[in-house]
Write a structure and sequence with these properties.
mainly alpha, single chain, two-stranded antiparallel ribbon, 60% helix
Amino acid sequence: MDKSLISADYAHKIDQKIKNLRYSIDNGFLDLAKSLKDVHDNKLYELLDYKTFESYIAQPELALDRGNVYRFIQIYEKYVGEYNVAPGRLLEAGWTKLRTVIPYVNEHNYESMLEKATTLSRSDLDEDLVEQGYVTKTEVPDRFIECPYCHKSFTPVKRSEVSFPQEDYKRIIDTYKKVKEIEIQGKEYDPVIQSIKTMFMNKRTPDEIIGAIEWLGDNAEYEWTIHTLKNKIAEILPKFTVRKAEMSEEDKRLLKGVGING
């Protein structure tokens, strides 16, 4: 596609299509993959006011896992782009099993891999990958994800294996209860803790989360919960924080002059 002919209107149409497909992945993952590839390759995210592709797919309306997104694109590029496989055959296999085999697919085995993904159960497929020597018994097939563009590999973090300091949870929960003027008991803590952990895993600091809670308490014109904050924190942070990296030297001198450390 000629990038000079791309308009903001086209970018918004693709953006809306992706959001619609986000909730019907099983039947629409190829359309989703094609649209995401379009956004990535043609930098449509810039026309939608996002600095990077990663920040675009992380927006609250999408909240797509980066590893899944790149696997979607890999499946589309290899099977549709390189090997010209009919989309119907890929839909029959389903994206979850194609996601399992795609790291091992090449021009010599793409047909047999597609056949396995179509006919075998997920557990049988995992066993077959071990028997064929693609992975060892101690490996998890989805352990490493390769970016189809830079070809760097990264390891997805398993949520269950990550922990954060209890004192950070306590600070945030205490602030949440104080601002909302509520008490939390028993099982009511579970969704609160899960929302906080999600924000931690998205690299939000305790101070950022606490600041966002206080900002909502002072400014929100709608009923909100910690779940609301989890989904909207990326929109809220710029409203009350000024990051050092974004401040000019003149701004830093002015702030220091009135006793504020920039």
